[in-house]
Design brief:
mainly alpha; two-stranded antiparallel sheet; 9 helices; globular
Length: about 220
């Protein structure tokens, strides 16, 4: 088990370092786009719950107006989202800075997505310890299974409640199953499947402002 954990950490460090090196020019362009679009910092940092229940501040490219308040779940055409933020969210490019969190040891390339404390408080005791026993990830099986989560929540009368009662329990089940079966090979396959999903997610000609979004 210890050797497997060391191999996963080495995989994370190599993948995150290589990713940041290759993506540095693109991240610089995205940073300029964000600054040109609206005043405020390039990065958005938010408190999430990581391994062992320890809180950390996740890195994202800012997709909302600076100092935007409101609920942790954004659904549909949220007025807080900037013009560039619509595109960044749809393509998931706003998640790229989480490679920094992987290098820092707060996250892994693959693992259960880290939630905000409000939703972690809803975890059943039987699953809480298992799901929080590993580093959270940028990529996870639940994101693939719930690729239509945005449309589901946008159609719900109360998106927050729908997420807590319908989506979150199934995500936790998938996360626990991942933890029980994870290997480096399965992690690599999840990364490839996620990239393929993102490349195929937005059909040509779909207006960005009409694409439903449900993100934390």
């Amino acid at each position: 088990m210890a050797r497997s954990a060391m191999a996963k950490r080495a995989f994370d460090l190599l993948g995150a370092a290589l990713g940041l090196l290759l993506l540095a020019p693109w991240l610089a362009v995205l940073a300029l786009l964000i600054k040109r679009d609206s005043p405020g910092p390039v990065f958005f940092r938010q408190r999430r719950v990581g391994r062992g229940g320890q809180a950390f501040r996740i890195h994202k490219l800012r997709t909302m107006v600076a100092d935007a308040g409101g609920p942790p779940l954004t659904v549909g055409a949220d007025p807080r989202i900037t013009r560039s933020g619509v595109w960044l969210r749809r393509t998931r490019l706003d998640e790229l800075p989480q490679l920094i969190d992987v290098l820092r040891g707060d996250m892994s390339l693959v693992g259960p997505r880290p939630e905000v404390p409000e939703f972690v408080a809803l975890y059943p005791a039987a699953l809480r310890e298992r799901v929080l026993s590993v580093r959270p990830g940028i990529v996870d099986p639940a994101s693939l299974a719930f690729r239509d989560e945005a449309a589901l929540l946008a159609a719900a009368p109360d998106p927050q409640r729908a997420y807590a009662e319908q989506v979150l329990p199934e995500k936790l089940r998938l996360s626990a199953d991942y933890i029980d079966r994870a290997t480096l090979w399965s992690d690599l396959r999840l990364i490839v499947r996620t990239i393929a999903m993102l490349m195929a997610a937005q059909p040509a000609g779909t207006p960005p402002s009409k694409a439903p979004q449900a993100r934390r």
